[in-house]
Amino acid sequence: LTYPVGIGFETDDMTETNIDKWEQLFELAKTHNADIFTTGDLTDKINLKNKLMGKIIDLFNKNKDIKVFTIWGNHDEYQDNKELREESSMSVLLKSCENLIECQSADLNSEVLAIDFVDSYKIEEIIGAYAPLPKVMVTHTFYDNEFMGGKNDNITKEQAEKLAELGVQRLICGHDHEPHDIEFVNGMAVHRFGNLIRKNRKSYNSHRQIEVMLYDFETNNYFMLPIKHKPFIEVIKTEKLLDAKREEVEIEDIKELMIEFEGITTEDKFEDLLDKKLEQETQNVRSIVRKHI
Fold it and tell me: CA 220, CA 250: separation in Å to the nearest integer?
C-alpha cells in the first residue's frame, strides 16, 4: 500500500487533518492485509517540540501489527545531511514506533528498491552496474522535472529507460506535490500521485480525489483506493477562517500578557508571548470550526 508525499507535523492542519488520513490508511492496510510503503516526507519540520508527535506515535503503536516502510525525503532530512539525521522528527518516530521501518537506501537485494532523497545521485551508479533490479522502485525524487534547476533530485527520461531495461516495472516517485497521469517508459510505469493533502489553491487540487495505491507483488496489478476527505471548497473556507482569526490578535491582549509575566520586557520574550497568544486564538477557532463544518 503506497501513498504519496507529506504528512506534516508542524500543526494539526484543520484544513486536511493528517491523523484522520493515517487512520484510514491503517484501516485499508488491515482490510487488504497489506504493508504500507511511503515515498518520503513523512515529516515536515525539524521542530521536535510540536504537539502532534505524541498523537502520531500513539496512532502508529495502536496499529503496530501494520508494518510501515519509509525512506527519507528532503523534508525529513536535517540540512540534507545524513550525519544530522538524529536531529529530526523522523528519527524520533523511527525510535518510538516499533512498526515504522527505515528502508535501506539503494539496497539491490531488497524486494523494493528504495532511494533516499540524499542518495538520488546513486541512481546513476545503480544503472551503471547493469545488474538485474527489483521490479518495484520507490524513490523520493522527481521524474523528468528539474524543479528550480535542480539536477541531483531528478530522474531523467534516459535514466528511466535504463531502469526499465534492468527490470524495474514500476517507478513510484515522491517529492512532486502535483499529481501527474501515469506515464510509461519502455513498458515501465511511472507513478507520481502528488501530495496527500491539498494545501494550495492550484487548479489541480480543486477536483482531484486523494487516493493511495494497492499493489500486488505477485500479479504486478494495482488499484487506486480513495481516501475520504472534505470537498475542496470546505478546505478553502476553513483555511480562510483560520487565517482571518490569526490576524485578530490585539495589542492590548499582548500588553495584558506582558503584565502577567512581570519583568519580561526583552524583544525575544515578547515574541514568545505573541506566539502563545496566536496559538490560543488558533485553538479557539478550531473548536468553532469543528462544531460547524
Answer: 58
Q: How far is CA 216 from the centre of its chain?
A: 23
Q: Residue 175: helix, strand or coil by DSSP?
A: coil
Digit-coded pLDDT (tens) for 238-249: 656 555 555 555
pLDDT digits (tens, 9 = 90+) for 141-174: 899 887 755 667 889 999 999 999 999 999 999 8
Q: What are phi and psi of 113, to 5 degrees?
A: -80, 110
Q: Are 3 and 196 in contact (CB under 8 A)?
A: yes
| CA distances, 40 to each of 176, 275, 277 (Å) | 11, 30, 33
Q: What is the DSSP letter of 85?
A: G
pTM reported for the whole predicted model: 0.75
Calpha distance 24→30 (Å, rounded): 10
Q: How far apart are CA 37 and CA 71, in angstroms?
A: 9
If you search the block for the grid coordinates 531528478, which residue do you land on? 154
The answer to whether the CB of 257 falls within 8 A of the CB of 278 is: no
DSSP class per residue in 67-83: -EEE---TTTSSTT-GG
Contacts within 8 Å (CB) and 24+ apart, 118-126? 118/72, 118/77, 118/80, 118/81, 118/82, 120/152, 120/153, 120/154, 120/155, 121/152, 123/155, 123/159, 123/163, 124/159
Phi and psi torsions of 136, nearest 5°: -120, 130
CA distance 216 to 222: 6
Amino acid at 285: V
